[in-house]
Structure formats: structure tokens, C-alpha cells
Design brief:
Blueprint: E1 2-5, H1 11-21, H2 28-36, E2 42-49, E3 52-61, E4 68-78, H3 87-104, E5 109-118, H4 123-131, E6 134-139, E7 147-152
Helix pairs in contact: 1-2, 3-4
């Protein structure tokens, strides 16, 4: 498996994964195009195996371009047939150095990473074990249920 920057030619396959992973959301292709076009504020990466996109991750730079950057893992998704195989973990761990490289091109460093997810999402453990993220707050009834805010501090 290889993790790399998303290319425009990846958008259709990535949109299919988005649609399967986030069933309450709509307009998957348009959502991903908007994020893809927000580069370098949004850094989009895909996991590829045998020339097939099997997952993606969106990292979003928050609150302007700064010397010390707070990034949000805005979205992480793996094709259902590839879930449970460590692809999400690989996406985080293999894209993180690439994120840091892109930030360094702007003379910036990564300070913190935050992520929000449903309170009942087992991905909390993934963010805790890969980044050291801890739950900082619970936001009741935000999207489809309670949402938690997790922060991994001093990820430099």
C-alpha cells in the first residue's frame, strides 16, 4: 500500500469511498472537489493498492497560515471491504510526515492535531493510539449524534 497526495484523477474513486463511508452525507464528489481545490489549506492524501484507491484522509490547516500550525483531520475513510486491516492507521502515520513536509515548505511546523468524531465511533481509539489524542470536549447533538473533540498536543 502507498500513501500519496491525492490527484484530480483520484476524485471519482475517492467520492465512491466517501459515499459508502458517510451515508448521511450527500454530494460526495462535490465535497471532495471543494476540499481538493482548497490546497494548500487542505491536504488530501489517498491510500492506493494495486492502482486502486482504498482510502483517503483530509488534513485541514486551521485559523490561517501560521508558523505553528494546528491541523484537523477533517475526514478519514477506508473502503468498506478494506476496513479492519490497518489502512486508517497507515493513512494517518504515512501522511503525517508528508503534512509536515508541506508545512515546512511554508516555514511552518505542526503544533497540534485535532479531530471530531461521533461519541460512539470506535475510531477514537485509532486517534488515541496513533497520535496520542485525548478527548477534550463533548458537543451534544451536533450532526447526527453527540460529537467529541480530540486533541493531540505537541505533535511536532
Amino acid at each position: 500500500m502507498r500513501v500519496r497526495l491525492m490527484a484530480q484523477s483520484d476524485l471519482n474513486e475517492t467520492a465512491e469511498i466517501h459515499q459508502l463511508a458517510f451515508v448521511r452525507q450527500k454530494q460526495s464528489y462535490e465535497w471532495l472537489v471543494c476540499n481538493f481545490n482548497a490546497f494548500p489549506r487542505v491536504l488530501c492524501f489517498v491510500a492506493e493498492e494495486n492502482n486502486k484507491i482504498i482510502g483517503y484522509i483530509l488534513w485541514t490547516q486551521k485559523s490561517g497560515f501560521r508558523p505553528e500550525v494546528v491541523m484537523e483531520i477533517e475526514q478519514l475513510a477506508v473502503a468498506p471491504i478494506h476496513q479492519g486491516k490497518g489502512i486508517g492507521r497507515c493513512l494517518i502515520l504515512n501522511s503525517l510526515p508528508l503534512v509536515k513536509e508541506k508545512l515546512a515548505e511554508n516555514d511552518s511546523v505542526l503544533k497540534h492535531v485535532f479531530v471530531t468524531t461521533r461519541a460512539d465511533n470506535h475510531a477514537q481509539e485509532l486517534y488515541r493510539s496513533t497520535l496520542g489524542a485525548e478527548v477534550e470536549a463533548t458537543i451534544t447533538n451536533l450532526y447526527s449524534a453527540d460529537e467529541i473533540l480530540m486533541i493531540a498536543r505537541d505533535v511536532s
